[in-house]
Amino acid sequence: MQLRALTIDAHGGLEQLRYREDVATPELTGSGSVRVRLHTAALNRLDLFTLGGLPGVTITPPWVMGADGMGVIEAMDADVRGLALGDRVVINPGISCRGCEFCARGEHSLCTRFRLLGEHLPGSFAEFVVVPATNVRRIPASVPDDVAAAFTLATLTAWRMCVTRAQVKAGDDVLIWGIGGGVAIAALQICVARGARVWVTSSSAAKRVRALALGAHEALDHTAGDVDRQVRRLTGRRGVDVVVESVGEKTWAQSLGSLARGGRLVTCGGTSGPAISMDVRRLFWHQWSIHGSTMGNDAEFDAVVAELAAGRLIPPVDSVHALRDGRAAFARLEEGAQFGKVVLRIGDD
Fold it and tell me: Does the pLDDT of residue 349 top 60, yes or no?
């Protein structure tokens, strides 16, 4: 059986994206896998990086793009327990081996063979995807399809960053760069829910207004002067307790300059470049902690899905596009004007 999918045959720009109707349907692995008939899927910044090409990552044409998705279980291996055909599920796109020392400790995103849908494995911008049963969770009918698709990667990433790694607590001041993207918005929601005062940045006045409506304490224009100087002025030179980073080269110095003594910086990316520099004397003198963070483990996946099922941490959806209009969806993400997630409608396209 052939299926519809959004694919690429080579790396490059938006011109490489192809909507196809002749992609082979993925088969069950024979051990612990489920096949999900996807209803919706959501774009992430990762999809733009995969499109452009990542060091050490190779693709086999036609390569199915996409990481996030939701749908119903259409088939499953005989050894799968705790799930049933027709279950409505969200997908955790981080696939671990379940056998290495890190998986044995319950740290699945530290797996020595960790892979992501759409980047290392065929992805979710298709009518069907096959994943391990451990990578899906049931969700209630009360969660809309577009919201469910927009949820997992960004919220799981932000949860591990803010709750597990940086350990944000009530009363903390937290600075989040670049509000408008999925991880930044999820981090804002999580930190506000934990009783922190959240500072966000954006060059867009409209995005700053929307962030304030979501509970941000301060919304800074990062084109109006160095953010660290703004933070120091507004905090009486103290600085913030936590900085949530994903930009890298362009913002690193300002992130460190915004930190209070004993502050924590947590990073999940380097969209402006991977090479950073710092004065190690400031690191030890101010007793800063710097944390890397990638995706999340099973326990964190359970925690965020429980929040979704309870009607909390609901991601804003910027726009919804038909699968065949995937290039327009990518263009929306690429231009950076979105607030919230860009979603693809796959079922009944």
Answer: no
